[in-house]
Amino acid sequence: MLPAIIGLAAVMLVDSPAVFSKSAGFVFDDLAVIVYNQDLQSGGILQALAWNPFRSAVYFTFWVQLQLGGLDAQQFRFANVILHWLAGVLIMAVAGMIFPGRKNLPWLAAFLFWLNPVFIEAENQALGRTEIMVTVFSLAAVMFYLDKRRPMFSRAGFLVSLALALLCKEVAATIPAVVLLLSRFRGEKPKRVELAGGFALVAVYGALRLLWPIQLAKTPELTPSWSGYFLDQNWIFWFASLKTLIPFHLTFDYQPQPSPALGAAFLALNLGVLGVITWKSVRGWKTGWLLLTYPLLYLPLAIIPLADALRESRLYLTGGWLLILFSAAVRPALERKKILSRLLIAAAILCLISLAITRARLWSSEDRLWRDAMQKSPGKFRPVYNYASCLRRELKLEEAKKIYFWAKTLEPDNPKVDWALNLIEEAGKRPELIEQLRRQL
After folding, report:
1. Model confidence over 93-133: pLDDT tens digits?
2. By the 8 A CB rule, do 62 and 126 touch?
3. What is the pTM of this model?
């Protein structure tokens, strides 16, 4: 209980610049899914859930908040932060069950998770709740599966948690494979009823999901081939893992470039590392638990949308697993030199707090967020255009024009840029058009 209470205080501390900012608002995908979605805002509960039944667990929480508090971005962010804290509590529980008897491991994994600036995006974008909730229910499913004390209750808990995780995001389809491998790792017989029910749920869900119309955010011309997409995931796997452990170059809108050659090289590396770990594990290698790295990290990272190869919010589930495994790897060294290890842990936590607060400040207003994204992805149209639109709505028209012209060099034929520039010019001649400049379009 004590680490959980301290963790709640720490989470509120690092997120306070964004959560309690009066200028904080809904961002990007939030607009289409929440702000302009009449099915969620004014429809009944069945209409709200039917908008996308494969996200119905998440949309139910959105619908409830809209009925109770309306379009208040602060309330949505605050709820995300509480769910983030709950995910950390579950990480403590699951880490203790996977690695029993290692008393320092659970709280270390939880604090590295609670304070990691990589997860600030998932907490402060309302739609990031999808990633948080699928993580909460995935961890709950694993916890129920590993529990031996109350077999009937745990069986029901596992199946219900899996079903709810599937109704948050498709990545939950990996849960039955994960718990099967965890059984093997712990030297236990797999629980046949739970596994049979779990794989059956995933099969039914998969069949229904494939029958549902899938709308890609990109045009067919811009959508990568499956082979290229798969190769890209092989280097993104390492990049995302490194970013979670050493948070660097954090941004809301990345500009990753397709690189088949790099992907092929990392695919060979992944196969080689997986082969070595498997061979060592079969021979009784004491650190054979490293075999868990690939099902826990690689599979979830591979099931991400084609529209954006990398978003920090999509590192949430894999980041939680990675920090459990990382804590297991460093625990022996930390316990051998207790004084030095405590100093190192304290320094790491202070660094994470500082980075997380700095990152949260960028989420305190839309213009700060898009300015930062534009600086880190200067060749990508979306952050440049969105930052120009922020300036336009604040009536900083000369600055906005400069950034719009920058956006025009990136996508010369995009009609949105021409519309904005024409509106600025017309508003200079006709003051009655000024109010249109303030609108969110």
Report:
1. 999 998 887 778 899 999 999 999 999 999 999 999 999 99
2. yes
3. 0.90
Tell me the two tokens of residue 106.
Answer: 């659970």
The string over 318-338, giving b where at least 16 C-beta atoms fall within 10 Å of a residue's C-beta and e elsewhere, is bbbbbbbbbbbeebeebeeee
The angle subtended at Cα 386 by Cα 22 and Cα 436, nearest 5°, is: 75
DSSP 298: I
Count of CB atoms situated within 10 Å of the CB of 229: 17
10 Å Cβ neighbour count for 256? 14
List the structure tokens of 208: 């229904």
**Is the Cβ–Cβ distance between 113 and 319 less than 8 Å?**
yes
CA-wise closest residue to 175 among 55, 86, 299: 299
What is the Cα–Cα distance from 154 to 190, expressed in whole angstroms?
Answer: 14
Question: Contact, 136 vs 164, CB < 8 A?
Answer: no
| Token digits of residue 141 | 């499913």
Instruction: Give the closest residue to 168 by CA, choosing from 176, 160, 157, 178.
Output: 160
SS3 label, residue 224: coil
Q: Which three-class secondary structure state does DSSP give residue 296?
A: helix
What does the domain layout of the chain look like in residue ranges?
2-212+224-362, 378-437
Within 10 Å of residue 131's Cβ, how many Cβ atoms? 30
| Residues 403, 404, 405, 408, CA torsion sign | positive
